[in-house]
């Protein structure tokens, strides 16, 4: 049994050193890290801490999105005894600064975006830059590799987690190495029983959408996967269509997320079925599958399993309560919907459902090593090694007896539950006034009320939670002075709150004062009933559904009706859309109308009318372009290699033996590259590939006109039978022998760029003709700005090339050219910083090609 996380990480990371540990999207590519690479980054970080004189017990702020560099920073701090203060990626800069002041942080480790916010204030290490020096070093001694390190034990503080995002004095939960190990041990013991079966599905791949700044996200992102040698994939994109795409493409086994995402995926499946006219048939199958064996249900809903991929089998839901309807939906389709229960003060896990012995409707059995009992009022009380050491006080950790537990060591969760005879724990509701959103974030009403009371027009206010699938969203009920506008008052108050805290529902109390108790406190239960009645069941007001497509989808997403909604209704203040709601809405609109919407413009849209304008005027029709993955795999790769040397290169030599210049600039370099060239004729591909060295020529994917390529793949309905066969044969030969993929000239290029990233991940270089069309006068056409976007997000060397002499041959009408009449010139590889403007990159690339 490990005595600290230092031992835990070293043992498990080294045991699976060559296996993939983490994958994450960077631009259009997926970046992969093995366990040994993460450990090397951690060793580098340890040396950096030592150089800066940061030692055991000192605090380091860790602020950024999920990534392998975040994990490496955390692991390094754990190995060195340094205390991590994780900060949610969406936390406001003001809150993060106040937390840093509270803990007296000596260093910030944050993303490039956050580093710009705190520049010049304190020492900063940028997360995205950690891997560069770390992975360029040979393995060197570090903590645990023969070199002496600080003595770190179970009682040492691991991290201080600030959960509230409060506008009052921040309050942090102090967790020790022992707290985490106490929760890991029973899970590890249970997992050992199934490792002999795991080899048949190895590696287990987790798509983790929970933030690593939350303890539950850490368990599924750092503590449990190494026990299996599992792979964790991080993704910022929460659109249901993108989640499904990632699950299928990366052969994900388990999705880890909050209940809201599971609900969104359920709605997407139902929406797609409805649009295809298959919803009623699905509902009949759903009803008839009740009580049937797992394998029977799997076969009945095999179309859904095909959509997600055959390896996917489970959801792990945490951070908030999963409603019974969603749990039943996924269970009926043959997936395991695994719930866990815990709080930050209990180091996340108290109970968890066994994936193969699910307690329907429960939040699982209590883990060994902790005790659970119910108070007289049904409150869940916890005692055990996972309970936090205390709350962070004025420069020290307060004692557990004073701050976290009672004198007998019991922690009062504030949640009401029940236990059955089998030992399953059931969540019945919340005793505390804390509002837990569907995204699993805690919102404290007093914080929001304090922001409202700072507005001079507010006479009094109460913030209550409007229940939604077992969780809640904040609703402001205000009494204003002098007939002031409540909407404007709430909007001003929201400006001082973090995005997840903002009140997107509000009501004016119809009387001069709130109903009060004998001690003059507002009767929150009465106010909450009023708010629920007005928000969810408004009388004599228009319903969202049926008014227009945008409002109908908003109604489905939010699960509530809008008061007097119309084109001028504000998406945030009137209709209560959170950032996650917006993600669902754009995905729903794209799925419903098969269009591509600009995410940047959509995020700036304020009203229903602006969204409708985007749909009618700015939406780009989504064409059904095909990107066959089989062309990047064996045996097609072998066939293509033979075709290059037996067909393409001899044909190019016959057409006009090219004169190749500049190959010396590629000496010693290997791919992948992004190759950009001028565009004269359809035979350009052959000349470019022939000019490249064999190590690049044999692995190159070529972008071509998407509209023309798709016309071959899907001929027009009036095309004759033999004409259709001929076109499809041309498509098969083009995509297989030349490795062509569609790059539309007008719209839909996002998917093409994503495919280019997938090809690069597979070791392929990518050839693009940025002009987008043949030259008609021998002069180069302007490069499209999209090439700058592609070069920036692929983050690989760009190789400029130019074909000369071919236009003159084409103009003369000759079919063949004398040897060396046609030339191919190769420039020096170019790289661009991640912060460069895409338009500037496109212009610089055009200048580089013209200079050849």
Question: What this model shows, in words?
Answer:
This protein is an alpha/beta fold and 852 residues long. Among the domains are: 435-536, GMP Synthetase, Chain A, domain 3, CATH 3.30.300; 549-621, Non-ribosomal Peptide Synthetase Peptidyl Carrier Protein, Chain A (Orthogonal Bundle), CATH 1.10.1200.10; 629-850, Glycerol-3-phosphate (1)-acyltransferase (3-Layer(aba) Sandwich), CATH 3.40.1130.10. The chain is 39% helix and 19% strand. It contains 33 helices and 34 strands. The protein has a nine-stranded mixed beta sheet, sandwiched between helices. Helix 5 links the parallel strand 5 (107-110) and strand 6. Helix 21 packs across helix 22 (579-593), helix 30 (749-761) packs parallel to helix 31 (786-794) and helix 31 packs across helix 33 (838-850). It is globular and about 95 Å long. Mean pLDDT is 83; it is low at 132-142 and 539-547.
| Shape assignment | globular
Sheet with most strands: 9 strands, mixed
The averaged pLDDT comes out at: 83
CATH top level assignment of one domain: Alpha Beta
User: What fraction, in percent, of the residue positions are helical?
Assistant: 25-40%
Radius of gyration: 30 Å
* Unreliable spans: 132-142, 539-547
- State the secondary-structure class: alpha/beta
Strand adjacency order, main sheet: 2-1-10-9-11-12-13-14-15
Assign the CATH topology of one domain. Glycerol-3-phosphate (1)-acyltransferase
What is the count of DSSP helices, taking H or I runs of 4+ residues? 33
- Amino-to-carboxy terminus distance: 64 Å
Please report the total strand number as a whole number: 34
- Which band does the percent of strand residues land in? 15-25%
CATH superfamily of one domain: Glycerol-3-phosphate (1)-acyltransferase
| CATH arch. level architecture of one domain | 3-Layer(aba) Sandwich
């Amino acid at each position: 049994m490990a005595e600290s996380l230092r031992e835990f990480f070293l043992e498990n990371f080294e045991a699976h050193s060559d296996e993939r540990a983490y994958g994450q999207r960077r631009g259009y590519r997926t970046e992969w890290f093995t366990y040994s690479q993460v450990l090397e980054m951690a060793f580098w970080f340890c040396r950096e801490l030592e150089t800066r004189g940061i030692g055991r017990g000192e605090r380091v702020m860790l602020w950024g999105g999920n990534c392998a560099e975040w994990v490496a920073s955390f692991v390094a701090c754990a190995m060195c005894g340094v205390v991590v203060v994780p900060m949610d990626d969406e936390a406001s800069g003001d809150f993060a600064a106040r937390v840093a002041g509270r803990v007296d942080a000596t260093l910030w480790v944050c993303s490039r975006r956050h580093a710009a916010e705190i520049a010049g204030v304190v020492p900063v290490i940028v997360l995205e830059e950690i891997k560069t020096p770390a992975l360029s070093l040979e393995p060197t001694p570090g903590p645990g590799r023969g070199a002496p390190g600080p003595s770190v034990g179970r009682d040492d503080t691991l991290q201080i987690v600030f959960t509230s995002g409060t506008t009052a004095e921040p309050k942090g939960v102090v967790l020790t190495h022992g707290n985490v190990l106490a929760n890991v041990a029973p899970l590890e013991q249970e997992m050992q029983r199934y490792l002999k079966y795991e080899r048949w599905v190895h590696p287990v791949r987790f798509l983790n959408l929970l933030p690593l700044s939350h303890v539950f996200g850490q368990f599924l992102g750092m503590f449990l996967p190494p026990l299996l040698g599992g792979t964790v994939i991080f993704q910022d994109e929460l659109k249901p269509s993108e989640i499904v795409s990632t699950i299928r493409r990366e052969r994900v086994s388990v999705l880890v997320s909050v209940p809201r995402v599971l609900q969104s995926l359920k709605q997407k499946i139902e929406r797609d079925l409805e649009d295809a006219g298959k919803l009623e048939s699905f509902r009949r199958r759903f009803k008839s599958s009740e009580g049937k064996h797992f394998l029977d249900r799997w076969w009945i809903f095999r179309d859904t399993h095909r959509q997600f991929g055959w390896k996917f089998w489970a959801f792990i839901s945490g951070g908030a309560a999963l409603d019974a309807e969603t749990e039943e939906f996924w269970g009926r389709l043959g997936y395991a919907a695994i719930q866990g229960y815990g709080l930050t003060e209990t180091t996340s896990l108290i109970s968890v459902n066994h994936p193969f012995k699910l307690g329907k409707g429960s939040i699982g059995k209590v883990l060994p090593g902790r005790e659970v009992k119910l108070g007289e009022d049904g409150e869940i009380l916890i005692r055990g090694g996972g309970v936090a050491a205390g709350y962070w006080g004025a420069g020290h950790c307060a004692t557990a007896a004073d701050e976290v537990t009672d004198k007998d060591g019991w922690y009062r969760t504030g949640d009401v539950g029940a236990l059955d005879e089998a030992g399953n724990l059931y969540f019945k509701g919340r005793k505390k006034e804390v509002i837990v959103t569907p995204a699993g974030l805690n919102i404290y009403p007093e914080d929001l009320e304090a922001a409202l009371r700072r507005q001079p027009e507010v006479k009094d206010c109460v913030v209550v939670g409007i229940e939604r699938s077992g969780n809640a969203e904040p609703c402001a009920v205000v009494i204003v002075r002098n007939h002031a506008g409540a909407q404007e008052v709430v909007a001003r108050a929201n400006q001082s709150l973090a995005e997840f805290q903002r009140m997107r529902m509000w009501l004016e109390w119809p009387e001069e004062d709130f109903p009060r108790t004998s001690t003059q406190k507002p009767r929150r239960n009465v106010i909450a009933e009023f708010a629920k009645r007005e928000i969810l069941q408004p009388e004599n007001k228009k319903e969202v559904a049926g008014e227009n497509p945008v409002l109908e989808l908003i109604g489905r997403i939010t699960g509530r009706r809008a008061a007097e909604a119309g084109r001028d209704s504000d998406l945030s203040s009137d209709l209560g859309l959170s950032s996650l709601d917006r993600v669902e809405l754009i995905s729903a609109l794209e799925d419903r109308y098969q269009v591509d919407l600009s995410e940047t413009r959509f995020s700036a849209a304020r009203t229903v009318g602006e969204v409708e304008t985007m749909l009618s005027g700015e939406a780009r029709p989504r064409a059904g372009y095909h990107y066959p993955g089989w062309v990047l795999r064996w045996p097609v790769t072998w066939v293509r290699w033979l075709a290059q040397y037996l067909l393409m290169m001899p044909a190019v030599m016959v057409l006009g033996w090219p004169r190749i210049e500049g190959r010396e600039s590629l000496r010693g370099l290997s791919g992948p590259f992004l190759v950009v060239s001028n565009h004269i004729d359809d035979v350009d591909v052959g000349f470019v590939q022939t000019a490249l060295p064999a190590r690049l020529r044999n692995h190159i994917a070529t972008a071509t006109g998407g509209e023309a390529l798709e016309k071959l793949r899907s001929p027009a309905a009036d095309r004759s039978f033999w004409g259709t066969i001929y076109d499809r044969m041309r498509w098969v030969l083009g995509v297989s022998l030349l490795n062509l993929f569609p790059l539309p000239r007008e719209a839909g290029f996002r998917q093409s760029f994503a495919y280019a990233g997938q090809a690069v991940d597979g070791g392929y270089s990518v050839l693009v003709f940025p002009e987008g069309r043949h030259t008609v006068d021998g002069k180069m056409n302007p490069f499209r700005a999209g090439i700058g976007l592609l070069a920036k997000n692929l983050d690989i060397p760009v190789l400029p090339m130019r074909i000369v002499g071919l236009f003159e041959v084409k103009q003369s009408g000759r079919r063949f050219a004398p040897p060396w009449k046609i030339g191919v010139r190769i420039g020096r590889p170019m790289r661009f910083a991640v912060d460069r403007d895409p338009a500037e990159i496109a212009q610089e690339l055009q200048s580089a090609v013209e200079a050849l």
